[in-house]
Design goal:
4-stranded antiparallel sheet; Jelly Rolls; 19% strand; 5-stranded antiparallel sheet; single chain; 5 domains
Amino acid sequence: MDRHAKTLATVALASLLAIACGARPASEPHALDAPAAVPPDGPVTFTRHVAPIVFEHCAPCHRPGGSGPFTLLSYDDVARRARQIAEVTTSRFMPPWLPETGFGEFVGERRLTETQIATLAAWVESDAAEGDAANLPEPPAATDGWALGEPDLTVTLPAPYTLPADGPDVFRNLVMPLPVDETRWVQTVELRPGNPRFVHHAIMAVDDTTSSRRREEEETEQPGEPGFSGMEMGLAFMPDGHLMGWTPGMAPNPGIDGLAWRLDPGTDFVLQLHMLPSGRAETIAPVAGFHFADTPPSGPPLYLIRLDADHLLDIPPGDPAFVVEDAVELPIDVEIHAVYPHAHYLAKSMEGRAILPDGTERWLIRIDDWDFNWQDVYRMREPYLLPAGTTLSMRFTYDNSADNPRNPSDPPRRVRAGNRSSDEMAHLQLQVRPRRAADLVLLRESLYRHAIRRNPANPWSYYELGNALLEQDRLDEAASQYLAGLGADPTHVPSRTSLGAVRERQGRIDEAAAEFRTVVELDPGYADGHYNLGSVHLARGRLEDAARHLRETVALEPDHAAAHTNLGHALRELGRLDEAATHHREALRLRPGSAEAHNNLGSVLAVGGLLDEAIDQFQRALRIDPGHAQARQNLELAREIAAELERAGLR
């Protein structure tokens, strides 16, 4: 999210800002024109009038270790750049804040008031007097610590990433395993990007498969170089409708009470950094701080609605006002919490609106001068209700003319949608919360039907619609959507995997096995493909085949609890009781609160004659779930066998 650069007073300041933020210098300097607001009566001084403004609004970035290219923590710091500061605040280039006033109220607005801007201009015109030191407010405290307090868990790279000295913008996805040995609930994540002067923005995601690690291994160009390149993050995702990002000056999101997201063992943290080469190699060593909640979430979860007009992006060279639009109707009541607009360098203006069922219009956001260099997530100051029947719309305008100072192509060229920053995007994401948890599946179904109408060639939309239908037990309809997705892309592994799952639920085991077999052929490193195929073999009694694929699963994902469980079952049927017990113990380690895991381990121990240990496991299962019928039956049987052995003198 961004604040556009209109004009700058000096090329020197423009260059400094370009180094820090990737901003393009404006073409012409302009004279300092103070806003119409009236500054304070009497002499304007640094200590009484200017320092409070600068310390609150400028120092968060312009401090040691901050994203600004210089510090603004003392009179000398500020006086040295007084006219430059007045110029960039008068033009509203600084502090960076894109949304227009009166078109939504957001947390952490960085906009200066007209009076504050007039005060800075008046101070410059009156020779930037320092004033009485007794009036100086306390400078901002050093921010070496975490803004949200000491995290419960910190993660970093084994070795820093080296940003090349030259070349285009760099998008790098850095993969960090999360060392948790039990399920935790995450309230929020605070990021230190490592070298904020050269990090334009960051996106934080998680991956509960091994896909990101495998991409890192496949794409690493040099031994020991972390991460993989590009804006495409594969199977990594933002969990449970949470928007997780970082931009210079953004205050860390404290999270929403009662809406923590689930973090399971074996999950990786994937951090995408957009970085700007500076002319020399730079060391980037990000650190993420995880803050845990004491309890799981309660009530309906968050969800991300994405309006998307990428399929309409085909911007001719020279076109100064290319417009794309999208709109969807809400089938349910939702509460809106945040809005996240996204485009690249050619976008000029952005509008997001809600038309309520009674015809009332409410602005979600309006940006008249988009700047890719200052993108942000805008959180509503007060979340509000959007009732069922509300139409959500977006309207983005692009300027692909030579008059656009942010146009990266000279002369302009035709631009289409894509993941490179030289391509374009048209997304408006809305973070919402359904009034009822049961309604979420209806929202998902509606949105993905809309996505298919908008772009029938995208297999992901069919896949997600199929998932929504499967959640409603509409198996035949779900299968038809997965098949449609495979018609668009026969290699789409998620659609084929889910189709196999539907066939398994329908009792069409041979067809399920065929789908899972194709999945493994398409992606031999996909752990869930081996798991599904192994589980189907187990159900068909093909025990050796089942064990082979389930072993492959846990080799790829050692923390795959369900694979350990099914491998334990297969090995037990094959008579390999010690191995079976090992895998059931591992499943229990991963799911320590699972009555079923205790019962499974107890069953193997009982078959192996370890009755005392088996009885203990059955008792543990029943303490967790007193209604677990199989554990109770197994416990009674184990006690009977133990009693008979004692009577026979064999114990």
